[in-house]
Amino acid sequence: MLTKRIIPCIDVDLDDDGNPAVYTGVNFEDLKYTGDPVEMAKLYNEAGADEFVFLDITASADGRETMLDTVSRVADEVFIPLTVGGGIRTREDIKETLRAGADKVSINTAALERPELITEGAAAFGSQCMVISVDARRRYDEEGDYYAQVDGESCWFECTVKGGREGTGVDVVSWAEEAESRGAGELFVNSIDADGTKDGYDIPLTKAVCDAVSTPVIASSGCGGPEDMYEVFTEAGADAGLAASIFHFDEYSIQDVKTYLDDRDVPVRL
């Protein structure tokens, strides 16, 4: 069995002075200052993270470019795979982000608006560079394609854009299948409902995607501790677990999580 990856993530925005800063929130709202992106990247590299994710959380919503200067400085501090997302809309954006030091790009809104971008990016730079991010939320109506049972109710999962602020009407599972067919190398599955709650990953969401595709799936949103990582690996079949708050605020270290998983026979890189 392949080792499961533990991935810290920083959500980066511009502060009141226009400087990049890390923020942490709940359900993609109520963001609070957490730290400097370059310093945090350096700490996570030293702490034994398997990969690192840098998300410019307002670039797409604000219609601005990703902060590539900061990406370059982060890339200088990490010697593990670096994924960068936010504001990436074109093949040229992908090229410039990789040139700045990213190993992979995470794309959400632009791929939904023009799915051919996945095909073009995979052909030009390789599937391994293309991470398709999905910001999913539950809907309890009859508009979806695939349904799951959650607490005795039937729901489907809708792709959203602009940090969960806008629905698209697109079913997450259908979109995951299309993204895979177009050359996505990984799927980055975020739950709007679970984001920042520390109540655990959205297992029905993650399992629905994992069951539908063979492409590696990164589970994101809601991790409150090592037991949640264990659950999303063993019950949903995720290939990687992403977390922010538990690492940012020193509730658990990366090593704490890996030791917990290793003790329970989940393969990890120690």
Task: Provide a descriptive summary of the structure in words.
- With 270 residues, this protein is α/β, with parallel strands linked by helices.
- It has a single domain (5-263), classed as Aldolase class I (TIM Barrel), CATH 3.20.20.
- The protein starts with a strand and ends in a 7-residue tail after the last helix.
- 48% of the residues are buried.
- α1 (37-46) runs parallel beside α3.
- The protein has helices at residues 37-46, 59-62, 68-75, 91-99, 109-113, 116-125, 172-181, 203-212, 226-236, 245-248, 254-263; strands spanning 5-14, 20-26, 29-35, 52-56, 82-85, 104-107, 130-139, 148-150, 153-161, 166-171, 186-191, 217-220, 240-243.
- Strands 1-4-5-6-7-11-12-13 form an 8-stranded parallel β-barrel, surrounded by 7 helices.
- The radius of gyration is 17 Å and the shape is globular.
- β9 and β10 (166-171) form a beta hairpin.
- One of its GO terms (biological process) is L-histidine biosynthetic process.
- This is Imidazole glycerol phosphate synthase subunit HisF.
